[in-house]
Amino acid sequence: MTPTIINTTVMKNSITKVIFCTGIIFLISSCVPKSDYESLKSDYEQIKKELEDCKYGADRLLKGAQKYFNNKEYDNCIASIQDLENRHPGSNEYTLGLELRKKAELAKKQQVETERRAKEEGIRKEKQRLAQATSLMRKKYDEMTGITWYYDKSSPQYVNSKTNLHAYIGKIKEDSPWLRLNIQYVADDWLFIEKYIIKVDDKTYTITEDGYGEIKTDCGSGRIWEWLDRKVSYSEYEIIEAIANGENVKIRFSGKDYYKDRTISIGEKIALKNVLNAYEALGGTKYK
Q1: Which of 41, 156, 170, 174 would staple 161 via disulfide (CB 3.0–4.6 Å)?
Q2: Are 188 and 233 in contact (CB under 8 A)?
Q3: Nearest to residue 187, comparing CAs of 268, 252, 260, 267?
Q4: d(Cα 137, Cα 142) in Å, to the nearest integer?
Q5: How high is the mean pLDDT of the chain?
Q6: Cβ neighbours of residue 252 under 8 Å, at least 6 residues apart?
Q7: Ranges in the chain annotated CATH 2.60.40
Q8: 165 touches 251 (CB < 8 A)
Q9: What is the Cα–Cα distance from 216 to 103, expressed in whole angstroms?
Q10: Is 24 left (phi over 0), alpha (psi -120 to 50) or beta?
Q11: CB 59 within 8 Å of CB 88
C-alpha cells in the first residue's frame, strides 16, 4: 500500500468540490448549451487535478518520505519515494528522494543486521542462563519412564535423611517440565501428620491431603519419617514462590494430637529459588 500524507482540511474541501461538480454535470449535461457544459467539465478536471496534487504532490510525497525516515520506518520511506518516482520522475523532489532512498536502504540493512545480532545474542544468553541454572541441579534419569529428574544439589536424596521442604523438576525429552513438592519430617516419635501450616511473613498457607494416605509414613532403626510428595498445582506454586522470597518462614507439622514447628532455613529458600530458575530455564511457565 502506497503511503501518503494528506492535509485533512484541503482534502475535505477538494472532495466536496468534486462531488458537487460531478452532481451538477450529471444533472445539466443533457439540458445546457455545449459551451457551458465544456466549461463546467473543465472546472471539474481542474478540481480533480488539485485533489491529485493535494494527495500526491511531489513536495508532499518527499516530506512524507522524510518523516518516515526520521521515525525509522524505512520500508514506508522507500515506498513513498517509489511513489514519487512513479508520479514525478523529473522533479527536483525526486532527485532529493533518490539520496534519501539510499540512506533508507542503508539504514534498513543496518537495522536488519542489528536485529539479527540481537537475536543471536539473546539465544546465546538464554543458553548460558540454562547452563547456569541447571548446573546447580543434581540430575537423575529414570530409564523405565524416560523422565529426567532435577534436584537442587543441597536437597536430601532420601526421605528418611532429614526434615526438609524442597521442590524438584521432572522432564521428558522436549516436553515441558513440571514441578513436584516434597515435605518430609524425620524424628523419634510419630506425629501422624494431617496437614502443614506454613506462615510466610504475615501470610498463612495450609496444605492438606488430596486423598487419604497421601501423607506417607515409615520407620526403621529407631527413627520415623512422614512425608508428602505431590505434583505442583497453582496453589503449591504460589506457596513455593512465597517461601523462596519470604523473610520469616515457618512450617507447622500438624498431627492428630501433636504438632512440631520449625523455621525454613536460608538454604532451603535458596534451593527453592534455584529450582524455580532451572524450571523456567528448561521451558517451564508460571502456574495459572
Answers
A1: 156
A2: no
A3: 260
A4: 16
A5: 86
A6: 196, 197, 198, 199, 259, 260, 261
A7: 136-281
A8: yes
A9: 72
A10: alpha
A11: no
Output the CA–CA distances (angstroms, integers) from residue 87 to 47, 59, 60, 61, 153, in the order listed. Answer: 18, 12, 12, 10, 71
3-state helix, strand, coil in the chain (%, to 5): 50, 25, 25
Q: Which of 231, 234, 244 is nearest to 270 (CA)?
A: 244
pLDDT tens digits along 82-113: 998 999 988 999 899 899 999 999 999 999 99
Distance in angstroms (rounded) separating the CA atoms of residues 142 and 15: 75
Containing 207, the helix (H) or strand (E) segment is strand 203-208
Q: What angle do CA 195, 137, 279 make, to 5 degrees?
A: 65
CA 191 from centre of chain: 46
CB-based contact 237:205 (threshold 8 Å)? no
With beta carbons less than 8 A apart as the criterion, state whether 136 and 153 touch: yes
Report the predicted TM-score, pTM, of the whole model to 2 decimal places. 0.61
Any bridge partners for residue 231, and if so which? 180
Sheet holding 178-187, edge to edge: 137-142, 147-152, 164-171, 178-187, 223-231, 216-220
